[in-house]
Design goal:
This protein has 609 residues and is α+β, with helices and mostly antiparallel strands. The chain is 52% helix and 11% strand.
């Protein structure tokens, strides 16, 4: 890490002053009020870090676990199994060599998995604070590293502090700042930025620094695919700073480690590789994918809607015009934008099939801004040296952008909090169903909440309850339990359930159109080309047989038997094939499920009048 003198814009030992270093009154006693005002930039930055940390904790106070993190939790359960090679027996067991090394989607995620496991061991799911607190701390660290790099480049103190504050409260990157799982993206950014300090030296090669860089680079690669981006940044920085031999030496060992891991996955666990390149016909959309990501990131960070292209072209012009600085201490400012273009072109090859708009995702905007910020700061600082009022204009604009960022962060939290609180209720409701021994209509590998967190299975949740990791004392509502029942106590199978239920389900009030008798205790429900709906009442566990004449989807929502209109927001859906009978089982006693049936005529057997 650089010294405080270097961080405040001073020259490094053995090197020329950093590009754009402003003139200061250092060494003069009792400087003017302008000098004293300039000196406030550094303490303002340091004060902003804990203030933002507390603010972000406040904004995320109603968020909870959701999505990918349940894959990490699942890997910690002894009963979790994977099928790394199609056709071979599954491999089971908690944290082991396989579960630590197999990719999460396409990402090598060993380091964040180990960190999550350490937190899980002590806190389980009893508190979200340690998880989100670590994520926010990572954001604070990345912000400080970017600030130090800007000061190391000689950026004007207030410009560096202002732009760092904008990044600290980056609403466009809310997904990476306020979702705890994205620590797997923030950590490699921090490691990559820290690693650049080890490469930023003059004079003879220093193998000790190179070895330390390899450690940081490998750890970054073991976090997520963002580690590849940071390795490209390190290699490009070394190339401009010290030549091709230094670049090769910096990248060779981490790249070799990553390729060995990739080869191991391809041989030992090919079934777990989830990403396939886009079709050739879609590759022509990759430039548009990259441009969309770039412009959306700039618009989101600045709040200047519609001007992302102008800002991108302006920055590009500045980089070309000042290219002579690229091989000096300002190398990071010139190589980072190029790395961004290359990296997101590679991302586009794998993900453009999801649509060009996907490039504007907040998690990508975050990385774009990290890579564009040093160049942007250097360009603004150059303007300040030519026109002093630009400093305070920049501070004023940054204040507006920071407020806009806070609004974006608050908006992300406000949108996601109800979703995550509902999921929290559903998962805890499911936990209470399992703990009480309620009859299920699904298997142990069924998803507890398949919409937002498909990685959490019934078996995983049982294991987490047994280990005392679930907050079973937390209050839940009857609605939470009913929502959980939709996914655990409603099931469809092509296999006959066997014995008839003790109490046959009966027809409820909400039936459209009215069914007609079809013989053999069956009813025919038909609504032409439109779907039809049938509400039944299950006083106890039971089942019905369903035979559609048109392929489609059955969806089931639950309501209490005594309040059939109070339907759950969640719906269990099942695909059905024309002419093939399936059996719908409902084990939630005292419920009135509303069943949506495919178009055409559907025969329903086993329901009483």
């Amino acid at each position: 890490m650089a010294s405080d003198e270097a961080a405040s814009g001073g020259a490094r030992t053995g090197s020329a002053p950093a590009a754009g270093t402003p003139r200061t009154s250092a060494g003069r006693k009792g400087g003017s009020w302008q000098d004293r005002l300039m000196e406030l930039a550094t303490p303002f930055h340091y004060a902003s870090l804990p203030v933002a940390f507390v603010l972000l904790l406040f904004l995320t106070r109603h968020l909870w676990f959701i999505g990918d993190i349940y894959d990490f939790f699942a890997r910690m359960q002894s009963g979790t199994c994977w099928t790394p090679v199609a056709g071979r027996p599954p491999v089971c067991g908690g944290l082991n060599a396989l579960s630590l090394l197999i990719p999460h989607n396409e990402h090598w995620s060993t380091v964040p998995l180990l960190i999550t496991a350490a937190i899980y061991r002590f806190f389980g799911l009893h508190s979200y604070l340690p998880y989100i607190g670590l994520e926010i701390l990572g954001q604070v660290v990345v912000t400080h590293l970017l600030w130090r790099w800007m000061r190391r480049l000689g950026v004007d103190p207030w410009v560096a502090t202002a732009l760092a504050t904008v990044f600290l409260l980056l609403g466009a990157g809310a997904e990476d700042i306020e979702w705890s799982f994205q620590f797997a993206w923030v950590l490699p950014v921090a490691l990559g930025l820290a690693g650049l300090y080890l490469l930023d030296v003059d004079g003879p090669d220093r193998w000790g620094r190179d070895f330390a860089y390899w450690v940081l680079a490998v750890l970054a690669l073991m976090c997520s695919g963002i580690g590849i981006c940071m390795l490209l940044l390190g290699a490009g920085f070394a190339l401009l700073r010290r030549g091709w031999r230094a670049a090769l030496r910096a990248a060779l060992v981490p790249a070799a480690v990553y390729l060995v891991w990739l080869a191991w996955v391809a041989i030992s666990a090919p079934a777990l590789l989830s990403t396939t390149p886009a079709a050739k016909s879609l590759l022509f959309q990759v430039p548009e994918y990259v441009w969309t990501g770039l412009t959306d990131a700039l618009q989101g960070a600045t709040g200047l809607a519609g001007l992302g292209g102008v800002l991108a072209l302006g920055l590009g012009y500045w980089l070309v015009r000042n290219h002579r600085l690229a091989r000096g201490p300002a190398a990071i400012a010139f190589v980072a934008p190029v790395v961004a273009l290359v990296f997101f072109a590679l991302v586009g090859i794998g993900r453009v099939s999801l649509g060009v708009a996907e490039a504007g995702s907040g998690r990508y905007s975050y990385v774009w801004i990290v890579l564009l910020l040093p160049a942007s700061a250097l360009a603004v600082s150059q303007l300040v040296r030519r026109w002093a009022p630009a400093r305070w204009l920049t501070v004023a604009l940054a204040a507006v952008m920071a407020v806009n960022g806070i609004a974006g962060l608050a908006g992300y939290a406000d949108v996601n909090a109800p979703i995550q609180q509902q999921e929290r209720g559903e998962i805890l409701g499911a936990a209470h169903l399992l703990q009480s021994g309620a009859p299920l209509a699904v298997s142990e590998d069924a998803g507890v909440e398949p919409v937002f967190s498909p990685n959490l299975t019934v078996a995983d949740l049982r294991s987490m309850i047994a280990a005392g990791k679930m907050p079973m004392s937390a209050p839940i509502t009857a609605a939470d339990t009913l929502q959980a029942s939709v996914y655990l106590q409603v099931g469809v199978s092509p296999t006959h359930p066997g014995a008839a239920p003790e109490v046959a389900p009966t027809i409820g009030n909400d039936v459209l159109p009215p069914p007609t008798p079809a013989g053999n205790d069956c009813l025919a429900v038909a609504n032409g080309a439109s779907t039809s709906q049938l509400q039944l009442v299950f006083s106890g566990p039971g089942w019905i047989a369903i035979t559609p004449t048109v392929s489609g989807t059955i969806s089931v929502r639950l309501a209490p038997e005594d309040a059939p209109l109070d339907l759950t927001a969640a719906a269990a859906t099942f695909d059905v094939t024309a002419g093939q009978t399936v059996y719908l089982t409902v084990t939630a006693s005292g419920t009135a499920p509303l069943i949506s049936l495919p178009p055409g005529t559907t025969t329903v057997c086993g329901a009483g009048g």
